[in-house]
Amino acid sequence: MNIEITSKVISQIIPRPGLYDLGGDLDNDIQIVLDWLSPYYPENLNNNKPTKIVDPSVRVKKAIHGYLKHESNQIEFVMVYINTISSQFETKFVADLSFLEYIHMVRQLSHYYNCHLDYLNLTNRSRMIFTRKLNLLINSKLSHTKMEEYFAERLFGDLSSQSHFELIDVITTLTSINLTNELNSTMIQLAISTIKRNIKEIATEKWTVPILDSINNCITTQIYPTFSLVTSYTESPAASYLSSLNTTAHDELVHLRISEIYTMVSTYPSSIPALEELHLCLTSSTKRRQLTTSFIDSMRKHLLHSGADTVDIIHIYIKTMQSFLIIDPRGVLLDQVIRPARKYLRTRDDVVIKLVHGMLNNNPSSKLYELAVELTRKQESIVRDEGLKWTPDPIDALADFKRGKHDVIESLLSIFTSKEVFIDEFTRLFGKQLIEGGDVQDIEEKLVLLKSRFGNDLFTMLDIMIRDIRQSGLYQGDLLRMSVLSHLYWPSSMLEHDSFSVPDLIQQRFDEFKSQFINDKPGRTVKHIPSLGSVTLELEINHETKSFVVTPLQAAIIDLFNEKSDEVSVNDAATKLSISEYTATQALNFWVDEKVLMKLTSTLYIANEDDESF
Amino acid sequence: MKVKILEWKSFATWHWDLATSADDSGYVEELCGICRVSFDGTCPNCKYPGDDCPIVLGSGCTHNFHLHCILKWLEQESSKGLCPMCRQIFTFKEPEQTSDVLINLKTLIDGHRVMRERFQQGNEQEFEAFGADQDLQMA
Amino acid sequence: MSRHPFHRRLLKEYQSLSQATLPGIKLVSNDENLTNFIFQIRIANHNLYPDYERYYLSINITQDYPVDCPQVKFIIYESVDDDKEDSDSIEIIEKSKIPIHPHIYSNGHICLNLLGEDWTPACSIESILLSIQSMLNTNDKLERPPDNDSYIKHAPLDPKRSRFVYHDDNV
To answer: Which PROSITE patterns match (chain B) (predicted)?
Structure first.
């Protein structure tokens, strides 16, 4: 419907005058009104001077009064009028206006048309139709991008009083042309993206300090004031916005943390502040699920594969426990995220040995130092008052979720159904230390800790082993120091060694010891394990004295060269010591490496001495 | 070159020296017939093997036991002082050093001997009265 | 319940028994502490004991085992026969019988020297099982002990006590 306003059109709209009106000149009157209304698009809009609206003359008023009496006529008139304005808009509205220029333009146009309209004596309905049509026209010229840019620059920063007024001006203008919804949604979008940007800036990879306060602060001081300013003009319920802004911010933080969770966990304990805040913000079950999924994915990618070291896996396992108990103290999330690691660790052959070594290594630089600390921690502090405050299992708990299993060592031990694998490993490790002359006192102290953790009954073997070593003090003679072992109570692999003939002097001492033992312990006898133990000896070679601590076999081999300048063949050595030639060669080569022996041929060895030394 | 050994730290294992023990070439684990645990281990009530849980060697027969195990058996009246393995009257090789537990064992064995002697005398006197039940007891 | 003092011996016995190497003898059930066992005994090629009959023997290890002999008796054991395919809704419960033997009372008590004065710690669960199996194998009389009726009227629950009752009543 593109009907332009002309007197001909109007005269068709206006009913023919009755006889009582004959005095007037209809066509002329219409033309008078149209003349008054024109231009249909105000001239000189851009020189910042409001177009002056000339008050209508009496004739115009009379003409309006005469012809636009009925609402139906008014509506028809308004439609034609707006159509005319519309076509003028197409050609005359200046494109490429800045947002502020647009606002300025809007105000002038509104003023211009509204002034005219005031004289047309329109009914509310006709007036409303016109306003709505006009707003649509004006709105269609609005560049949303420019509006967003304008607000993006001004909305959430410090407002100077001047820009404050300008802003109010803009807001009222937009509201007046029915752009309230656009204004609101632009503002909300801006608020959200500002929050997102802020959180990214404030929070990304910042885990060592609390940041929730500064986020909340930024919302209260920066976002919310503008927000409430705008809403006070748009008549939206402002009060509810603050809490949803906070929720938005917290959700955004959680979203960020979900992407960072694995690295956060691996930097525990420095990430504790971030973990604690995650605990505060993590309220939705969807987010909880996303968090665990993200963590498990990263863990699988970074850790649970053949390239990773078992110690590193255990290391992260411990941090995972500690971190997730902060995020979710009930342990439900922990239960979920730790399962893949538990399952994977079962496939590792060296888990038990690494755990056992970790628990016993008191060196703070140990990656598993946490285990050693945990082991020494008093059991009482671990027991929680679960019984007193019973609550149902959380809804997102897996079916076989067990509460209270939050002790690091307990959790790691429970990867295996039986504790015996650990007991065996402790026994092997301590056994080795005891044989190698480790500190019995230290071992006993550690054993006390282990007993409090695993139970007394499981360490019978170690108790007997320790007693064996303690009692060895009873058999210390000249040169020979014997320890007598209760063979059923030592790991059999430790006592199974190839035998060999010890030097005569030592054999003699052993025989003396044996008869003393049989005398002391009627009914019992002893069997020597020659290869077990260590020998301290001194070599006098090239007028120098060198000290060594070597294996008994190495000692027996070098003893063959005592005060002897001849070479010794591998075959000789093997025969004298009753060992294989291979074993003899290995022991001989040890002394070659020590520069004590020299290899003459592949089977002949001689003391590495200057000729004149003998 | 002179080699001077300063200290030789070495290890041995102890074993009960049983008459039937294998030679040095290999250890044969012998079990106590009562608890079925190796002699070099302990009876069920002991923790530490060796001094704390000695063994006794049968002298009437060739059967050996943890001292505590055979004590427990001979404390039963129903044992009648017999070796659990061969049902001969149990006697043991007395070591040079004695102990309270060994004296205990001796007392028990003596007690059974006395009971046996008394039973044999009594049995002859009460044979007729007792004999009347024989059929039923066999049932 | 805590472990039996001779748990290690019981464990060894259990391990060899559960390997089921004794023909005609099967371990049916046992408790965790290895002090209560139920064995199934079959007698093959025998006139009195048909091949399809299964006899069940309960063996309870007393606290003083092995210096004290276990409490042993035949029991009536209800086994659900799930082999039969035609019984999809009705479970067929088969009740075992107490084997008829001149030394076996109808309440399951067994008169056997090994379970009384001939017991020594050298005996074992296995030797009990073999003795009882052999006792059935060599039997040719389809009868209960002559005092069966009077015995079962006054028999204590624990067959180990029956000897004392027996002597008290008759001496």
So the answer is: ZF_RING_2
